[in-house]
Amino acid sequence: MQKINTDIFPEKKSIPEKFMIPLPYDQTEYLLDGEIHTWQGDFETVISPVYFKENDKYINQIGSYPLMDSTTSLKALDAAVKAYDNGNGEWPSMSVENRITCLNKFVLLMKEQRSIVVNLLMWEIGKSLADSEKEFDRTIEYINDTIAAFKDADRDASRFTIKQGIIAQIRRAPLGVVLCMGPSIIPSMKHLQH
Length: 194
Hints:
Blueprint: E1 25-26, E2 29-32, E3 35-38, E4 43-54, E5 57-66, H1 70-84, H2 90-93, H3 96-112, H4 114-125, H5 129-157, E6 161-163, E7 166-168
Parallel strand pairs: 1-5
Antiparallel strand pairs: 2-3, 4-5, 6-7
């Protein structure tokens, strides 16, 4: 029988402090209707492809996140519909300048979280430091490019255009509530067993 080489797993104390995250990193709160709530239901465990050794244990569980249920999901949908208010809500009726101000503030606040997001990327999906930093920076760049495109579209909307002899002025506006869902890896097969 071949012996497994356990020396490949670093001791927790040997990992530089700047690359550690508070373990376990449990996400217990969620945003709903403009308020932060504490989740009381089931949680999904987040495991890392990177193990470390602490005392005599090999650890790769890095935290958990709420397994939202259909009732809470529908409450989130209702809150989004209420906030949109058929185009009369605060965001859809906000000026382009104010929306851009909100997005720029979001980018500044996101940049403040760079080191923790980079560390979470390394721990959760095993990306290198350089690749994690590039992913974060690409995301910021994408948001800034979107803001620039929004400004250009607004400038274009202030002009009249002529197409096939018809003079028009095009205004862009939010159309309604959408679902935006990022990729997710199901860390266990228990969801498929029901």
